[in-house]
Amino acid sequence: LVAAFALLACTVSQAKLTVGFAQTGSESVWRAANSESIKSEAEKQGIDLRFVDAQSNVDNQMKALRSFIADQVDAIVLAPLVVSGWEAVLQDAKAAGIPVIIMDRKIVADPSLYATFIGSDFFKEGQMAAEWILAHADQKRKIVELQGEPGSSAANERQRAFASTMATHTSDGFRIVARKVANFRRDQGRQAMAELLTTHGSDIEIVFAHNDDMALGAIEAIEAVGRSPGRDIMVVSIDAIKTAVEAVASGKLNCTVECNPLFGPKVIEAVVRLTSGGTVMKETFNKDIVIDASNAAQLLPSRQY
Ligand code: GYE
Fold first, then answer.
1. Residue 282 — pLDDT band, cuts 50, 70, 90?
2. How confident is the model at residue 107 (pLDDT cuts 50, 70, 90)?
3. Which of 75, 132, 233, 282: CA 20 to 30 A from 14?
């Protein structure tokens, strides 16, 4: 009997899963909320999570994956900084029998190299932002775009969707006059917008930012030149972090398209299924909504991130 208990205790302790999580970095408020959501759910489920903050550096992320494979973790969660370059390391993970969950951003690779993708539909988000502008722009037509991390699926898809939706309305005069990369960061958004205001001055009527942090930076830059964000210049972005929803409620931001980062429970559920012989859907998309003056105040109290 004692031996049986010892055996049981042994299997129970062996059952604790070890999961490697290669996060992009900590570039935005969205990212902090996403990291927290996965960490807390892992803890709840008694999972040993090895968290690596790649500090927006692809080499760091690649190194993290290699060390997870060398340590024979039970599963890998990857939020890929960029879309390309993952084939070789994913082949190694596959050869080692380690399931990989791609979350948040997508990759371009043979789909058999990863188990599942879980995240938002960035193309749809870009489209929703463009459609909101088309419906609410009044006389405003000239747009500047603040772009996220080059090569990331989030920036790629939001740009592609926005441009293609706007392209169908060039006859109405809608035009993207300039684009600037600000890497999803608030300080860079402020800086980029200040430069755009210098070079394009009174031309700018609408700002489309690939995330809220950059939009909040842009709002500061607009105020710094004595113009009124939300009125003189329309500002639209994506993520719907609490500070941005507050800015919508106070009229400085016109619209933010939600991109929900709180899907740690879905990611961890996939980990548990995949490591216990279960199956998961190849792709799972989160549902996102549009937030503007019509619903911001009402949504604010329940905002979790
Ligand atoms: O919009 C931005 C973050 O990949 C959806 O990355 C994510 C984006 C998000 O830094 O704030």
1. very high
2. very high
3. 282
Q: How far is CA 151 from CA 85, 103, 107, in A?
A: 11, 16, 10
Contact assessment for residue 114 and residue 102, using Cβ atoms and an 8 Å cutoff: yes
CA 200/CA 193 separation, integer angstroms: 10
ipTM metric: 0.98
Return the SS3 of 55: coil
Find out whether the beta carbon of 158 lies less than 6 Å from any atom of ligand 1.
Answer: no
**In testing the pocket of ligand 1, which one of 23, 28, 61, 238 has its CB within 8 Å of the most ligand atoms?**
28
Question: Which residue in this structure is represented by tokens 């709002």?
Answer: 219
Asked whether the beta carbons of 103 and 267 are under 8 A apart, the reply is: yes
- Bridging pattern class, strands 48-53 and 18-23: parallel
Range list of H helices, the chain: 2-14, 29-44, 58-70, 87-95, 122-136, 153-167, 186-200, 212-224, 242-249, 264-275, 296-299
Region 190-207: mean pLDDT is 95
Task: Give CA–CA dist 303/49, Å, rounded.
Answer: 26
180 close to ligand 1 (CB < 6 Angstrom): no
Provide the whole-model pTM. Answer: 0.95
